[in-house]
Design a protein that fits this description.
heterodimer; A: 116 residues; mainly beta; 6-stranded mixed beta sheet; 12 strands; 0% helix; 49% strand; globular; B: 115 residues; 4-stranded antiparallel beta sheet; 11 strands
Chain lengths: 116, 115
């Protein structure tokens, strides 16, 4: 079945440092890929997405490129802020049909802490 | 943007009680809703997929009689945890998706604590 593997955390950075959170996936077909962010005690918010190979999703300074050849969707940000501290989830969406069409498969999540 | 409202946000109740959690899409028709469960510091685990007007599809290992899901309208799905016990304590999150569209939009979650 489909699966998503994220780099293990937690990740601790100083403000303005460069961030990379690795994400690789296995899937049948051509899934859409997502990064979600979860702040403490809250649900998930979509951070960015990519629907096909070589697409780059970007939002709030975060970027990720859909790499089919390496089955990866690594999240990057050039300069993190304290407010970026949260849990980040990589996910893929099953678009192969059936009753669970569109269900998301999540990675295990990476806790990011940014210090001033 | 699209908004999903989940209620209640926090509930504490005694063992044996049944608890209902509501998930509403506020500005779009949610043909599909998903229910997830999240344990502390862990990822989200899909419990079931709910399509409007039909029975929910449960993931392997999820008890249908324990976690009752109803999706009677295009804007509301409910999850009822029946005869809840302490091991059912968790963070439950719903998401909703419009017909054929991505991405899913998530509610803010419900923290359920069973004493």
């Amino acid at each position: 079945g489909d699966s998503v593997t994220q780099m293990e955390g937690p990740v601790t950075l100083s403000e303005e440092a460069f961030l990379t959170i690795n994400c690789t996936y296995t899937a049948t077909g051509y899934p859409s890929l997502f990064w979600y962010v979860q702040y403490p005690g809250e649900g998930l918010q979509l951070l960015l997405k990519a629907t096909k190979a070589d697409d780059k999703g970007s939002n709030k300074g975060f970027e990720a490129t859909y790499r089919k050849e390496t089955t990866s969707f690594h999240l990057e940000k050039g300069s993190v802020q304290v407010s970026d501290s949260a849990v980040y989830f990589c996910a893929l969406s099953d678009l192969t049909g059936g009753t669970s069409y569109g269900k998301l498969t999540f990675g295990q999540g990476t806790i990011l802490t940014v210090h001033p | 943007g699209a908004v999903v409202s989940q209620h209640p946000s926090w509930v504490i109740c005694k063992s044996g009680t049944s608890v209902k959690i509501e998930c509403r899409s506020l500005d779009f028709q949610a043909t599909t809703m998903f229910w997830y469960r999240q344990f502390p510091k862990q990822s989200l685990m899909l419990m079931a997929t709910s399509n409007e007007g039909s029975k929910a599809t449960y993931e392997q290992g999820v008890e249908k009689d324990k976690f009752l899901i109803n999706h009677a309208s295009l804007t509301l799905s409910t999850l009822t945890v029946t005869s809840a016990h302490p091991e059912d304590s968790s963070f439950y999150i719903c998401s909703a998706r419009n017909r054929g569209r991505q991405p899913q939009h998530f509610g803010d979650g419900t923290r359920l604590s069973i004493l």
